Structure formats: C-alpha cells, structure tokens
C-alpha cells in the first residue's frame, strides 16, 4: 500500500471528470485489492500522438476516496518487453488480476513489425499492486490478427478466466493455476450483438456481466450481456453507455465501499480521439439486475468516506535557473516564479532534488495559466519523460494549478528536473517532491 500523501494545494474535496489531467490515460481497468484501495491500470496515450502507434509506458493510479488519485508511477514500457515489436509502441488496453500473493498484469503487444497480425497477450508480475512488475513473457496460443484487450476475471472459487478479442471476435477460456496458460482451447462467444472490442467481466448478486464496445462508427457505445456462469451462455441485454464524444470506448466496472462505478474515457481535454482521459461515474442497476444507462457527468463523484489527508511540510523547490526567454520573477505573493515559459526555447531547472533512498517520487508542478490547456515538457536527470498538461487556472497570476506525475529519482540530492515550455502561456512558481517509501 502506498503511503504517499498529497500536498495541500493538490487535495480535492469533490471529484471532476476527467479524473487524471496531467497526462493522457485511457482504457481504465479498475480493481479493489486487499489493502482497501481501488487501483486503475491504464494505458497511456503518448503526446503528441501518432494514431495509436505510440501508446506506451503504462501507469497505475490508486485512491481510497474516489476523488484524490495518486499516480503510482510507470510500471511497464515496450523497452522492457524482450519478445516484443522491435519498434516499440502499441502497448494497448491492459488488465490486472491477483491470485496467491501475486499481481498479474496482462497487456496486448505485437511481437513483430507487422503489428496487427502478431498480437500476443503479455504478462508481467509483482508482489505489489502498483510497482515492481517484471515481464514474464506471453500466454502461448493466444493472439493473431486484431486480438487485443485482455480481461481476467477471478471468481469466488479462485478459478480464473481470460476474455479478450478484437476485429469483432470475442474469445474466452479458463486459465491454469499458473495464470499464464490456458486450460484447453479458447472458445468464441457468438451471442454478443455488434461486438467490437474491450471485453470486461464482473459479478454481482450471482449474475455474471460481460461488457464491451460496439462498432458504432467513430463513436463506440458500451453494450453488455449476462450469464449465470462465467463461461456462458451469454444473453445480450443492450446499451448502457452512449457515446462519449470519443472515437473509441473502453471501460471497466467495479464496486467500492458499497457503490458501483463505471470507469471509461473521453477526449474532453484534447478534443483528439488518440489523446484520451479517464472518467468515472456511478453505475446503477434495476431490481432485475439489468444496468441503467449511465449518466456522464463533468462534476464527477462525491468522495467516499474521509478525504485524503495532506502531507506535512513536503519538500518544495524553487527554480535554480531559467533561460531561453524564461525569467525568474516574483509572483503576486512575492514568491519566486518562472515566467515567459511560452517561448519556444524557454526552460527552468530545479537542482538538488532529494530522492531519499531512491525510486518512486510524486512530483507536483505548481503553475498559473490563462490557456485552456498549456503544456510543459518534463525531463528528469536527463531522461525525456513526458509532456505534462497544465489546465487553465483563470489567469496568468492565478497560481492555483497543480499537475501531478510520479517519476523515479536517484538516491540522495543529486537529482535535476527540467521543465521546457513553448506550448502555451504558463508560469511556474515551484514544484513539490514527495518520495515514496515502498
């Protein structure tokens, strides 16, 4: 269980949709594990996008109040997959399962340059839900043309089942005890109306549910079927999520603290179907177990239980240098702030960052911007990591913005973080760094 707290400026008292705004995340797979937190295993739309080719660097998010989401950090990238496509990318919608003390992370990835003909289902494992995953290879006998989007459902009797598919074909089978091989042969589900991809299976009150994305052109919907057994037969029930304004749809359903939720994505931040953002809304059932149409909201969720407590006196850093047109000035409260970061070559650097014993650290970038979405380029110890989204704060002097991402730092204080601008007007008046204690 992660014991990192949020800086006070980052703590939310109510939800918003999308729930993660600093980077683009999609295809949320939600699970509640034994530590009592809810975890989301998400794909990552690399920015700028090139179709879906560059999806990579899976992140995990966790929460205990459904409002404040901690980035657990990157857990796997294509560079870690020795058997994978030489050119990388194509790390599409994942899932995770837990059995006998091990977390199994399942992900689709091609094994050759001809990506759409060579999909396989890879597996990485860890003894922790949000870190420490190591690739173990792929499940033999699965894959081929368009076969993506794994879902693994572990039933109450601890038997585990794999569902996956694409190109309008949904396959299923039971996993062996090793959670990395199929017992017998995979079978096809032929009773799903207009199946496209994104299978997800859950159980409620003795009813098994299989949800999926349909083929509505450039605006998928989510449909579902039900059964009294995880291997079917499945009875089609209808549409429960209408279009989200995004060209794709992919969701998961989980119960947390007595309520049911739908996790899905849209393109509300980017207005681009290949730069997506995760959302959550409540899911409601009729008395007969059928699912009501989900109401998509902007305001998101009310917190479940106590709001996350802020960290006590986290380490906050001011920029040690700036250049390329950026300058260090004073903000409205007399604190140092880097301005003019909208210049093409502008940058600011933070040195002497304390990485404690090394490993994961949550960083929070405090900023102001009058743009709808500005961007900063993040470099850590010379490694080019990501474009960070900075949503508008209402003015160039309104330093209420707080973008959040988890990175890896070296032990001690010999760490350097650089933010490069040039993508919209933005000013930065510091970063907060909170190391994890795994």
Can you characterise this structure?
The chain is mainly beta and 438 residues long. The chain contains no helices and 30 strands. The chain has strands spanning 25-32, 38-44, 58-63, 70-76, 95-99, 102-110, 119-126, 134-138, 151-154, 160-166, 169-175, 182-188, 197-204, 207-213, 222-227, 235-241, 252-256, 259-266, 277-283, 315-317, 321-323, 327-330, 336-339, 347-350, 359-368, 373-380, 383-391, 401-409, 417-423, 427-435. The strands form eight sheets. A five-stranded antiparallel β-sheet has the order 21-24-29-26-27, with no helix packed on it. A four-stranded antiparallel β-sheet has the order 1-2-3-4, with no helix packed on it. Strands 5-6-7-8 form a four-stranded antiparallel β-sheet, with no helix packed on it. It is globular. The mean pLDDT is 95.
Short summary:
It is built from no helices and 30 strands. The chain is globular, with a radius of gyration of 22 Å.
Layout of secondary structure:
Blueprint lengths: L24 E8 L5 E7 L13 E6 L6 E7 L18 E5 L2 E9 L8 E8 L7 E5 L12 E4 L5 E7 L2 E7 L6 E7 L8 E8 L2 E7 L8 E6 L7 E7 L10 E5 L2 E8 L10 E7 L31 E3 L3 E3 L3 E4 L5 E4 L7 E4 L8 E10 L4 E8 L2 E9 L9 E9 L7 E7 L3 E9 L3
Antiparallel strand pairs: 1-2, 2-3, 3-4, 5-6, 6-7, 7-8, 9-10, 10-11, 11-12, 13-14, 14-15, 15-16, 17-18, 18-19, 20-30, 21-24, 22-23, 24-29, 25-28, 25-30, 26-27, 26-29
Largest beta-sheet characterization = 5 strands, antiparallel
Oligomer: single chain
Helix/strand structural class: mainly beta
Mean pLDDT comes to 95
Give me the number of helical elements.
Answer: 0
Identify low-pLDDT runs.
Answer: none
How would the global form be characterised? Answer: globular
Through-space gap between termini: 8 Å
- Rounded to an integer in angstroms, the radius of gyration calculated over CA atoms is 22 Å
How much strand content do the residues show?
Answer: over 45%
Give the helix level as a range of percent.
Answer: under 10%
């Amino acid at each position: 269980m992660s014991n990192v707290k949020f800086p006070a400026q980052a703590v939310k008292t109510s939800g918003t949709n999308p729930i993660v705004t600093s980077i683009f995340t999609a295809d949320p797979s939600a699970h509640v594990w034994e530590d009592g937190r809810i975890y989301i295993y998400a794909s990552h739309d690399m920015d700028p996008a090139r179709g879906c080719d560059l999806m990579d660097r899976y992140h995990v998010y966790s929460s205990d109040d459904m409002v404040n989401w901690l980035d657990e950090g990157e857990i796997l990238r294509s560079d870690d997959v020795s058997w994978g496509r030489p050119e990388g990318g194509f790390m599409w919608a994942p899932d995770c399962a837990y059995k006998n003390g091990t977390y199994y992370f399942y992900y689709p990835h091609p094994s050759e340059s001809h990506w759409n003909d060579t999909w396989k289902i890879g597996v990485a494992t860890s003894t922790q839900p949000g870190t420490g995953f190591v690739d173990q290879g792929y499940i033999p006998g699965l894959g081929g043309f368009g076969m993506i989007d794994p879902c693994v459902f572990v039933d109450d009797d601890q038997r585990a089942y794999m569902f996956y598919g694409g190109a309008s074909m949904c396959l299923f089978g039971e996993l062996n005890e090793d959670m990395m091989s199929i017992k017998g042969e995979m079978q096809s589900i032929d009773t799903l109306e207009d199946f496209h991809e994104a299978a997800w299976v859950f159980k409620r009150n003795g009813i098994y549910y299989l949800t999926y994305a349909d083929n509505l052109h450039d605006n998928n919907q989510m449909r579902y079927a039900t059964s009294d057994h995880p291997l079917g037969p499945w009875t089609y029930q209808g549409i429960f999520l209408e279009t989200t304004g995004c060209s794709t749809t992919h969701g998961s359903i989980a119960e947390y603290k007595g309520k049911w939720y739908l996790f899905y994505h849209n393109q509300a931040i980017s207005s681009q179907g290949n730069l997506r953002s995760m959302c959550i809304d409540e899911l409601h059932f009729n008395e007969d177990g059928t699912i009501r149409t989900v109401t998509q909201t902007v305001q998101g969720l009310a917190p479940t239980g106590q709001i996350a407590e802020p960290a006590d006196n986290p380490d906050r850093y001011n920029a040690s240098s700036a250049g390329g047109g950026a300058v260090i000035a004073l903000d409205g409260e007399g604190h140092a702030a880097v301005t003019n970061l909208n210049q093409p070559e502008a940058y600011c650097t933070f040195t002497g960052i304390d990485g404690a014993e090394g490993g994961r650290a949550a960083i929070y970038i405090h900023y102001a911007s009058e743009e709808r979405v500005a961007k900063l380029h993040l470099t850590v110890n010379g490694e080019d990591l990501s474009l960070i989204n900075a949503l508008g704060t209402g003015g160039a002097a309104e330093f209420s913005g707080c973008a959040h991402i988890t990175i890896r730092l070296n032990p001690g204080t010999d760490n350097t973080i650089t933010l490069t601008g040039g993508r919209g007007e933005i000013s930065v008046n510091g970063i907060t760094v909170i190391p994890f204690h795994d």
